[in-house]
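Progress against Task 2.4 (sequence-to-structure conversion) is shown through the following example record, which the project officer requested during the mid-term review.
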Amino acid sequence: MTQPHGGADLKPLYVTDTARRDALAEDAEGLPGLLLNSAAAANAVMLGAGYFSPLPGYMNKADTLSVARDMHTAGGLFWPVPCLNLTGEAIGRAGRIALRDPNVDGNPVLAIQDVETVETLSDDELRLVTEKVFGTLDPKHPGVATLVSLGRQVISGPIQVLNYSYFEHDFPDTFRTAPQIRKAIADAGWKKVVAFQTRNPM
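Structure tokens generated for the chain above:
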């Protein structure tokens, strides 16, 4: 089977050890919280499930602009769309924050992030990212409308994912992590697999 993108092994960010996960969830209650937007929450789920392997978490501004311009991170890893925790909320000098799920009642903690940088996108930088990712600046485009509404602060750093939001519960017959999909392919003995993605960015 073809190796995962960016390395020999998948690197899902979901915390599999139950005791460790419970301890992190307890720790999270004492951390500053950030209510994610749906885009950042979706990125957390994708990181947790291993779909965004080998990324360790959300990108910083340098990687964001590099991916937008050249479809490679600043370190040279091919990547088509920035993986962002973009917000308009102030988080101060917090070194660690609890990322709360906007899509589940009660906004439970979805992940914990170690904050490495908090940077601001300028108008020109946001315009660049928007146009490169979506191919347009038309405010009627749903992707454009969403991206420009999320805020300007880029909060980067690794994350530890505590759950898969609503996906496991709402789609039990179809939701699978990247390791589960690779195992199913291997168990079936398939030699050729066709992947299809609709027009929307990953």
